[in-house]
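Field: COMPLEX_INPUT
Field: COMPONENT_COUNT = two
Field: RESIDUE_TOTAL = 527
Field: MODE = joint
Values follow.
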Amino acid sequence: MREPFIQFKNVFKSFGENHVLRGTELSIYKGEITTIIGKSGGGKSVLLKHIIGLLEQDSGTIMFEGRPISDMKKAERKALKRKCSYMFQGTALFDSLTIFENIALPLKETTRLSDSEIDRRVKDKMDQLDLNDIDEKYPSQLSGGMKKRVALARALVTDPETVLFDEPTTGLDPIRKKSVHEMISNYQQKFGFTGVVVSHDIPDIFHISQRVAMLDEGRILFEGSPEKLAQSSDPAVKEFIQGLYAGNDTCIQPDKKVDK
Amino acid sequence: MSQISVLINPITALGKWIIFIVQEMGRIAIFFLKSFCLMFSRPFQIKKIFQQIHFIGAKSIFVICLTGAFTGMVLGLQGYYTLVKFGSAGFLGAVVALSLIRELGPVLAAIMVTGRAGSAMAAEVGIMRISEEIDALDTMDINPLRFLISPKLAAALISMPLLTALFDVVGIIGGYVSGSVLLGLSGGIYFTRIETSVEMTDVSGGFIKSFVFAAVIVTICCFQGYYTHTRKEGFGAKGVSLSTTSAVVMSCVTILITDYVLTSFLL
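Field: COMPLEX_OUTPUT
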C-alpha cells in the first residue's frame, strides 16, 4: 500500500464559533494532482493553508512524508516550505512591484541565482503563460485573468516539488481555463510535482486530476479517482456533482475523457 | 452574592485590561527586537534602505523646515517679550537653542515624521496584510519582518537624527529672524549666547531621543499595520483605517511619555 505524501489525521480548526474543519481525514499522494471540491465557504482554502503552515490546526495531525509537521524543527519546516509553492485565490500580487519583479521575487529573495539567470527563468515562464510585453506593468493595470496567470507564473518559477493552487482558474474565460489546466497538467507530467488544487471547474479539472476529495461540513465526504466520484452513491456527493454540472456550460461526464 | 460581584467585576475587568496591556507591550517589544536583529542579516538590503531613507527622510525635509522655522520664530517672539520683562533679552539665543535642541526639536520632528511617514507605513503594511501579500511572502519563505519592516527601521534610525538636527538649525534661524531681524536684538549676542550655553551633552541628549523616537514610530506604526487582520472592531479597509489612526495616536502618546522618561534620565 502506498504511503501518503501529505496526510490529515482528524484535523480540527475553528475561528471563534465557526467550526471549519471537523475531524478532516485526507491523503495526498506524491506525484499526483489531487483536487479538492466542496461548497463555497466550506473550508477548502483553510485546508490548503494548513499544508503550507499559514494556519495551524486546533487539534489533530498533519503528516508530511510520514512525519507530523508539528514535530519538525524550525529548519526542517523552512526546508519544507521552500519545496512548496502556493497560488492564492486573490492572487496576492505585490501592487507596488512590476509584473517582472513579482514573478522574480521568490528567486531574488530565496536563491543566489545571478540576475541574468533570474531574468531568463522569469522570461521563460512569462512566455509559457502568454504574458508578453507586460514586464513593466503593475498588477492594477492588468485584467483579473492576467493577474491569475502572473500568480501562476510566480508559483511555478521556483520549480517547486509541491504546488497548492487555490482556485487557479476562477475569473478566466474558457480558453484560458483550458490553457491553465493544460499547463498545470503538462508541468506536473514534466516535473512530477505534487499538486493540490481547490477548484469548482467540474468536470474540466477531473481531466488533469488523479484524485478528487470532496469536503463537506468540515469532513472529507469522498476521496478517490474522478471515475469513482461519478459512480458514488452518496446522496450528498451526487447532489453536489449534479448541481455543479447544471451550473457549467460544458456538460462532459468525468468518465468521458477529452483529448488533452 | 451580588454585592461581592459588584466589587469583584471592576477588579476583574481592571486585571484583564492590565494583562492585555502587558501582553501587547510584550508583543510590540518582540516585534521590534526581531525587526532590529534582522536588519543585520545578510544579504544587506541596501537598496531598500535607501528607498526608505528617501521616503522617511528626504520627503520629510520640507515639512521639517516649515515647522522648525515657525517653532523657532514663536520661541523667539515669546522668549523675547518674557525676557525683556526681566532685563535679560540677551539670553534669547540660549533659550531658543536649548529648548529646541533638548526638547522641541526631537519631539516635534518625531511627531511630524509620525504624521507624514508613520501613518503611510501603517496603511501600507495594513493593506499588504488584508490583500494576503504578507501571507504570500510567508509561503515563499521570505521573512516578512526582514523584507518589510527592517529596512524601514534602519532608514528611520538614520533619518531621524538628521531631521532633528535640521529642525534644530532651522528653528534657531527662525528664532534669530523673529528676535533679531524683527525685534531688534543684536545678532551677535543671539549667537554668542547659543555658543556659550549649548553643551555637547545637550546635543547628544537630543540625538539619543531622536534614535529612540525613530524606533518608537516604526515599531508602533508597522505593528498596527502588520496585525490589522486581528482587529475585532473592523475588517478590510475599515480595519486599515483604524490601524492607521491608532498607529498615529499611539506613536504620538508614546513619544511624549518616552520623552519625559528619557529627559529624567538625561538631565
